[in-house]
Specification:
This protein has nine helices and eleven strands. With 355 residues, the protein is α+β, with helices and mostly antiparallel strands.
Length: 355
């Protein structure tokens, strides 16, 4: 294995150097021409023009070749990043345990498909369980935190019968992750010995939902916006109570009893979102009217989950002129079956990834 590692380590620089071989040869030829060719030693106008043309051609060729090489490596890096991001926030099936599911995400960073937002929907023996969250910050640090929280949820959602225990598992996973990052930052000082930014102030807002087989909705909310409940033409928040503090800066309270809401009836929808949607601004600084956009979408008749999502997403992009300033995630859960069908196991899920 050591020999293979060395071989690959040698091949990679060689692969990068090969495309520069021709411009380098041109440069060597130009220097040779300048040093050894008698016309290049002359001071006449014609000789100067010829010499300048030779060096201009060589420089242009070198710049173009370097540009092509960098663009090729950038495209490859984006393909790899896209595959990794898709594995992190994997596409959701259009139906989960009797619920129609539609999801969309927008990243504020150009060229990225995943930011600090996270979501997941899984069918378990306890019902359909959902997480929606928002990590403070962007970039690779936010992605690593998203991975830690989602990985913990995907296990705890199946293992824990109580929703409060699922939340405690997420809290412990986040604490371990932030502790590891803090140790790494302490061991990697920044420029001039100044430590890199600490992680003590980082936090994650988390909304946990559970839709039981009888349609009853249970929720635990740590600093996240409450979802909207759509019933016929009515659009109203699922709850108006103040949520718990976000995960990270403060310990969870001893009592984590989930709030129980009425059943999600046939045709009802829950619309989960991150604050990037609710706080999106237009050119004049006005917030995006999310509830009004939802009401417009269902004003005349009930619409399927995917059509509802498309209508709201189109309204948000019009409001922000196609340039949201923050990451946005929208998730629609719609009861498309009889209440008895809710909470079916994973084996009952059908369909392919939602578009």
């Amino acid at each position: 294995m050591g020999g293979q590692t060395t071989m690959f380590g040698i091949r990679r620089p060689l692969r990068r150097a090969v495309p520069l071989g021709l411009p380098t040869a041109w440069g060597a030829l130009a220097v040779t021409y300048k040093l050894t060719c008698p016309p290049a030693q002359q001071q006449g106008l014609g000789a100067r023009i010829v010499t300048s043309a030779v060096f201009f051609a060589v420089g242009t060729g070198l710049v173009l070749q370097v540009r092509r090489t960098l663009l090729r490596e950038l495209r490859q890096a984006r393909r790899v990043a896209g595959a990794a991001q898709s594995a992190l926030l994997r596409p959701l099936p259009p139906r989960v345990g009797g619920l129609d599911v539609a999801v969309a995400r927008l990243s504020a960073d150009r060229g990225a498909t995943v930011g600090g937002d996270l979501y997941e929907v899984v069918a378990t023996e306890h019902g359909v369980r959902v997480v929606m969250g928002d990590v403070r910050g962007h970039g690779l640090s936010a992605l690593s935190t998203v991975a830690a929280v989602l990985g913990s949820f995907r296990e705890a959602a199946h293992d824990e019968a109580d929703l409060g225990l699922v939340l405690r598992r997420l809290d412990r996973a986040l604490a371990r992750h932030l502790g590891e990052r803090a140790r790494e930052n302490a061991e990697a000082p920044g420029v001039s010995g100044v430590p890199v930014t600490p992680v003590a102030e980082e936090f994650v807002t988390v909304l946990l939902l559970e839709i039981a087989r009888d349609g009853a909705v249970r929720a635990l909310n740590c600093g996240h916006p409450w979802p909207y409940l759509l019933r016929g033409p009515r659009v109203e928040p699922l709850a108006r109570a103040d949520p718990l503090p976000p995960l990270g800066p403060f310990p969870l309270p001893p009592d984590l009893t989930a709030t129980v809401f009425g059943p999600l009836l046939r045709g009802d929808s829950l619309v989960l979102f991150t604050d990037g949607a609710a706080e999106a601004r237009d050119a004049r600084g006005r917030f995006f009217p999310l509830s009004a956009a939802l009401a417009d979408a269902v004003r005349h008749r009930p619409v399927p989950a995917r059509h509802l999502l498309r209508a709201v997403l189109a309204a948000l992009l019009r409001h922000t002129a196609g340039r949201p300033a923050d990451d946005v995630a929208l998730l629609v859960l719609q009861n498309g079956r009889e209440r008895a069908a809710l909470g079916a196991r994973d084996g009952d899920m059908t369909g392919t990834a939602a578009s």
